[in-house]
Amino acid sequence: MKATRAFYDRGEFPDGAIVEMTIWKVPEPVSGSAHAFKYSLFYGFPDKRLVGYDNERGKGDHRHIQDREERYAFSSVEQLVSDFLSDVRHVRGES
Predict the structure, then answer these.
(1) Which residue in 23, 36, 21 sits closest to 87, CA to CA?
(2) How many CB atoms lie within 10 A of CB 53?
(3) Residue 67, SS3 per DSSP
(4) Residue 93 and residue 27: Cα distance in Å, rounded?
(5) In the prediction, which pLDDT does 82 show?
(6) Where are the alpha helices (DSSP H) in 1-95?
(7) Rounded to whole angstroms, how far apart are CA atoms 47 and 33?
(8) What is the pTM of this model?
(9) Which of 37, 49, 85, 88 has an alpha carbon within 20 to 30 A of 77's alpha carbon?
(10) Which residues are CB-contacts of 78 (< 8 A; sequence separation ≥ 6)?
(11) Alpha carbons 61 and 39: distance in angstroms, whole number
């Protein structure tokens, strides 16, 4: 079984910021994660990430909030997207 894209969305804000979310369903968990998803969620500008969630091999689930990196407790795809968008709103000063 190959990886299949489960979700993709991309948008731009009037100030030029980009939000892009890609989630793949994978046949086996990525090294460092215990679930069947590989994901990359990005918010920022072309030359600067402000919020990022990903689970690169070996690092497992984690998030980047501006210059800080910390572990992320993945529970579901829905919660992942909700947490990411909440952090985006916070960084944008909307919450």
Answers:
(1) 21
(2) 23
(3) coil
(4) 38
(5) 98
(6) 77-91
(7) 28
(8) 0.94
(9) 49
(10) none
(11) 9
